[in-house]
Amino acid sequence: MTNVNAIYINGLGNLSPQKTTDSSRFLDEVNRVQSNRLACIEPNYRDFISPDILRRMGRLIKMGIASSRICLEDAGCKMPDAIITGTGLGCMEDTEKFLTTMVRNKEELLTPTSFIQSTHNTVSAQIALLLKCHNYNFTYVHRGWSFESALLDAMIQLRNGRASTVLAGGMDELTNGSFEITRRLGHWRTKPADTFDLLKTTARGSIAGEGSAFFLLSSAPGDNTYAVLSGLHTFNRKASPFALPRILNEFLERSGTSPGEIDLAVCGFNGDTSSAGPYKELTGSLNSAGIAAWKHLSGEYMTSSAFALWMSSMIIKNQRVPEAAVIRAPGSGAIKTILIYNHYLDLNHSFILIRKP
Amino acid sequence: MEELINKLKKEVITQLNLEDISVEDINPDSPLFGEGLGLDSIDALELIVLLEKNYGIKIEDPKDGKKIFFSIRTMAEYITEHQKKA
């Protein structure tokens, strides 16, 4: 039976440092690296974009188009009613190119292409141009809750009946420039970390990452429905240890779920001792749930919760937590409800709740 | 002139990121816009910057652009003419 308020995840497309573009495989082979940064495994973009258009596109645009195409194909959707994206930093490669040229040429002789492509909404705009989609198109640039903002807008569009299908995604790219600046801010491990050991070792800093994940959200289930998106909550302040369980309980209550119903908590542990507190606090209050993590597979970036939503949707569909993601195995029963909890620098926090359809 | 034409071909390929096109593929007399290489208005801006940056030539009247950027040869002729004047 179709729930009138339910939002169905009917398609996925994920480009990440893991082999995630093929939905018939689910992290059965993990790309294990020894590094403090992870790069996406990129497809041959000519399979998705014609060469005459491709020549002008920066890397993030190509990543966004490829992952959105995979998602639409997965869902069997040709034309979404809305395209909504979230990105923390946008097209960094083109931004750096444009700014570097500006400095080098003393603000003269600026070429238009990198400027045009450097704007944050270029990805959603290019997707729309290629689809010839004139529908609602929006991009959210809200640091560590950019993807969640896109998701929230998608939920509003669907629940208000303004759209019946929404292509929603989150994407960020890692460039040498952005890595170097955030390295100086102490965001990353000073020594290379092993993918499998990142969460076991205690040190300051995480590993940098990047990715682009899209979701076809719909007000009706499809032949390929992965999960039901049941709730989303964000808050943008430091999470005091006492407040977090209360905020979670209030969110679960609003979503009609009790803590005991959570089969799996997918948490954004990133190997940085300074960011582990809220995750420990949260998982400590969910004693009966299994625990999984994703940032050792995707790296840390502002929209990495999109990777988490992809992984969680795949877990519900496949009824299996990939070995590489398990921190505490869930019970032997069906995985019906997953809570995703992420925070970025303890400033942008989010809960996403999904269920088995 | 032929040397300049070949140099220009290489510069255009690089500036416009024409990945699939080699120097041999470009006929110096074929139109750059519409048919031929099928360039568009954004490419035109890139070519204006290329002329200024690599040859120190600033196009004062945008109307001249159509004639100057008709083909690789017309670009080369314009550069040569401009360099003689300088």
How would you explain this protein's 3D organization?
- The complex is a heterodimer of chains A (357) and B (86).
- By secondary structure, chain A is of the alpha/beta class.
- Chain A folds into two domains: 212 residues, Thiolase/Chalcone synthase (Peroxisomal Thiolase, Chain A, domain 1, 3-Layer(aba) Sandwich), CATH 3.40.47.10; 125 residues, Thiolase/Chalcone synthase (Peroxisomal Thiolase, Chain A, domain 1, 3-Layer(aba) Sandwich), CATH 3.40.47.10.
- Helix content of chain A is 32%, strand content 21%.
- Chain A has eleven helices and 13 strands.
- An eleven-stranded mixed β-sheet of chain A has the order 4-3-5-7-1-8-13-12-9-10-11, sandwiched between helices. In chain A, strands 2-6 form a two-stranded antiparallel ribbon.
- In chain A, helix 2 packs across helix 5 and helix 3 crosses helix 4.
- The termini of chain A are close together.
- The mean pLDDT of chain A is 94.
- Chain B has 86 residues and is an all-alpha fold.
- Chain B is built from four helices and no strands.
- The longest helix of chain B is centred in the middle third of the chain and has 15 residues.
- Chain B is globular and about 35 Å long.
- Chain B starts with a helix and ends with a helix.
Major β-sheet strand ordering of chain A:
4-3-5-7-1-8-13-12-9-10-11
Q: Biggest β-sheet of chain A: count, sense, barrel? A: 11 strands, mixed
Helix residue percentage of chain B: 40-55%
Q: Would you count the extended β strands of chain A for me?
A: 13
Largest interface: A-B, 12 and 13 residues
Distance between the termini of chain B: 17 Å
Q: What fold name goes in the CATH topology slot of the largest domain in chain A? A: Peroxisomal Thiolase, Chain A, domain 1
Distance between the termini of chain A: 10 Å
Categorize the overall geometry of chain B. Answer: globular
